[in-house]
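Dear H.,

Thanks for agreeing to be a second pair of eyes. The structure we're designing against is below in token form, covering all 115 positions.
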């Protein structure tokens, strides 16, 4: 499955999550926590962000933690010298949610359209 097909499959799988993902990202921005919210999607326990969706309590395979670029830098998931590059590629948060997806394919940043 190519990258575009995987993105489409992920988008379909996350349709029911999208309102909560958007709301979490908006809250992070509106409360001045960060201009760069990152939502961590995972199936195992992770030590980053604040849990907002537990896959054992919803109909879905993904748990979600809310995080930020700043936390990713602190935890060295994004190197300090890469921050400017990350900010340049970060898509408009009014139109996309930034996901950090931990799956059997590895760890990948994905910008999922809100609509």
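And this is the sequence the design step returned. I haven't edited it by hand at all.
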């Amino acid at each position: 499955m190519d990258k575009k097909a995987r993105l489409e499959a992920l988008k379909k799988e996350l349709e029911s999550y999208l309102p909560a993902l958007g709301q979490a990202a908006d809250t992070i921005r509106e409360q001045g926590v960060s201009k760069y919210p990152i939502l961590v999607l995972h199936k195992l326990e992770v030590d980053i962000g604040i849990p907002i969706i537990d896959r054992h309590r919803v109909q879905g395979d993904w748990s979600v933690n809310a995080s930020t670029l700043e936390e990713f830098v602190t935890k060295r998931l994004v190197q300090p010298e890469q921050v400017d590059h990350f900010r340049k590629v970060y898509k408009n948060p009014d139109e996309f949610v930034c996901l950090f997806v931990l799956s059997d394919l590895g760890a990948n940043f994905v910008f999922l359209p809100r609509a």
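Two observations from my side: Residues 16 and 59 are 9 Å apart (CA to CA). The first helix runs from residue 3 to 13.

Warmly,
E.
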